[in-house]
Give the backbone structure.
Amino acid sequence: MKKWISLLLALILSLSLMAGGATAENAEESAEAAEAPVEDLVVLQHSAVVQGQTLHYTTTTGILPVKTEGGTCEIFFMAYTLDGVDDLSARPVTFAYNGGPGSSSEFVHMGFLAPRRIAFDENGNVQDFPAQITDNEYSILDLTDLVFIDPVGTGYSRPAEGADQTEFVGYQNDLRSVGDFIRLYTNRYGRWGSPKYLAGESYGTTRSVGLAEYLADTYDLNLNGLMLISCIHDLTVLLEEQPADLAYVLYLPTYTADAWYHHKLSPEYQAMDLEALTEEARAFAGGEYLSALFRGRNLGETEKEQIAERMAALTGLDAARILGSNLRVTYRDFCKWLLEDEQLVIGRIDGRYTGPLTNGDMGSGTADPSSAANDGIYAAAVNRYISEELGYHTDRPYYTSSLEVNTLWSFPDGFGRGFVQYDTVYNIMSKNRFLKVWALGGYYDLATPFFSAEWFFDHVFINEETAKNFQFTHYPCGHMIYMQEDCLAQFRREAEAWYAK
């Protein structure tokens, strides 16, 4: 009897241990499941008036966990899909974002492409703060579905718990996380058959070119078009990165446009229309001015004085001050000098804006009146809009512009000084004969000067047949081409033709 009791006790103990082991294993699996990122999506129906027609559409707002080579991240997005579409293969989808790096998608979202936007007057000024949100009659939702993406560290996008933020910053890391999101969205929502476009602003144009290559090489996901808004593809032309003589040449026509706007030019130039004037400035910058800078100390004093006088006429600056800078005027100095007699500084993002000269840095935007005029307005509007209209609620802060992300971009992978994308643009346009590239820029933009964008694409040596897929448009506005109603209306007309090709 004792033997059977012993065996029974041993069996009970064994079963207990097995159960305990299974419980521990299940607990471990449950813990792992709890730590894994969870999809968090809100789906709502809306309507808005666009181009005089009421559009009914669905918004999908929230977070998708994205597994990349560097780990898992949580990408926050806002998608707009037109209702009543039976065949998605006939319906384009456009993925949109801003730049920075370190900027959320708030500007192209709330100011430009979506069916709802901040209410501005015709000159891009808000009448109330916080700003009102209204239907965007210039939205392109009738032409294409829209997916706005906040890269990791911006908006509500974050590394997953335990993941390293540094795995998602830098040129290649950024391409992986954003590109893998685009692949996941395309697969999840059945958009492989849809024409696919990217719309990026500022650094977003650099990202778009890289993404076109990454998506094609990694997933055989080819695109139909790139909308490049305020282009930057060669950082050697920015004075902040590499103060070479070419940079001064490429900035000069924008100096001319900004001076013309503020009525600081000589009478003969002030009387010209903007397009003819900037053509004159291009000719001088790429001819006599470039030649003079190339000669350096070998340039004679008489010739140097003549160049300074011509620059003074074209920029509104004092010739003696231009001579004192050896004919090389940085954009920081230009912004401070142009309206110095009025004790004002002009904007870098948009030279039409003015403000008192304050402490801070023009490049980072802390002393830029055109940044100060809009940053708070957009931040308040996007937080309100996501919560009240898109119905997404979280206690996370929405990072409209993350200085932490900018700081972490230490460019370990070669991006930065000397970075150019000539070969990348050549390859993506040459390999994909369906890819259309549209570069858009503002005359008053000192962040990404329009002449530098022209110069870049003039030095991508694609053949004539491939070059037919490229177009360039200039607008009488700044970095954010949508901050003036007539520019927004012009864009809308041209977008209809571009998507229809």
